[in-house]
Amino acid sequence: MTLFILRRIGLGVVILFVVALMLFSLMHMIPGDPAVVALGARSTPEMRLSFHQMMGLDRPFYEQLGLFVGRLSVGDLGVDVWSRRPVLTMIAEVLPHTVTLALASFVWAVALGVALGCLAVLYRGRWPDWMIGLLSIGFVAVPSFVVSLYTLLLFAVTLNWLPAIGAGEMTDPLGYLKALILPSFAIGLGWVGYVSRIVRAAMIEAMNEPYVRTLQSFGVAQRRVILRYALRQSMLSVLSVIAIGFGGLLTGSVFAEIVFSRPGLGKMTYDAVITRNFPVVIGTVMVTAALYVSCMILADILAAVLDPRVKRALQ
Fold it and tell me: Can you tell me whether residue 86 is helix, strand or coil?
């Protein structure tokens, strides 16, 4: 098992190295002088020279690449072009908001998705199953930014029940929770559909297992067979998908953070792209990639622990 974990971590490091090389290459593929692109055409030669020195652009290409990879390997993401603050410090300030939003979206979406998946199997082939299928596909089809806009207009602007923008203050738990409801709903709604369909498919497959048929032949109640035995079996295959989905929620929070003006990794990336703040863009993308890769590794380990067949397949 230790060798399996080391291999997955090694693969994760290779993926992050490739992401870093792509980001470095993209910065040099931008037409023109990166200093002019970042600072604007009205920037003075002194400002451009300072930018070149800060980014290491005054050195040969291979030295730039070596410095870039070397700094990333020790967690140095550079400094903000405008505020001159360390990018890692800036990310550490907003990352808790993104993780909290992703966790809130994840918890309610998985809970409701699993419940709907169980109901669909319990009433398989009848109108509740069809209705849940229709709703699930609808949830998946609607983009999160559309849900964000409509819930914002309805619950914040029209009804004035919930705050429209901001993340609230940690010192005010009720206000912080209220500010979390609409963004987490917008992000998690699509995952309700995904999870319910995955749970339904996995449970139907589990219902065809010999031990389940044996239980049914002995007269065990269908509800008990589904909720106690088939659900447990199906969750083995669902858990790994859900774990990877959490990584997707972290990266998918961009639209909700922009629409609701919440501080977070996604909004920081968006603002940095608008202002052409290369160090912040590179830093936020690298941290996002690291979080996603970490979720993938955890999902693989979890799947290997729960089902040894997955471990053999991944080796």
Answer: strand
Residues contacting 74, CB < 8 A, separation 6+: none
- Identity of the amino acid at 214: T
Residue type at 30? I
CA atoms lying within 13 Å on the CB side of residue 56: 19
Q: Is 238 exposed, middle or buried (0-12, 13-18, 19+ CB in 10 A)?
A: buried
CA dist., res. 8 & res. 286, Å (int): 18
Provide DSSP, 131-200: HHHHHHHHHHHS-HHHHHHHHIIIIIIIS--S-SS----TT-HHHHHHHHHHHHHHHHHHHHHHHHHHHH
Write the pLDDT tens digit of every residue in 152-189. Answer: 888 888 888 888 887 777 778 888 888 889 988 988 88
Taking alpha carbons only, the member of 133, 306, 118, 130 closest to residue 224 is: 118
Structure tokens belonging to residue 273: 């792209």
CA 194/CA 303 separation, integer angstroms: 19
* Cα-based distances in Å from 307 to 194, 205, 314: 22, 16, 11
List the end-to-end C-alpha distance of the chain, in Å, as a whole number: 10
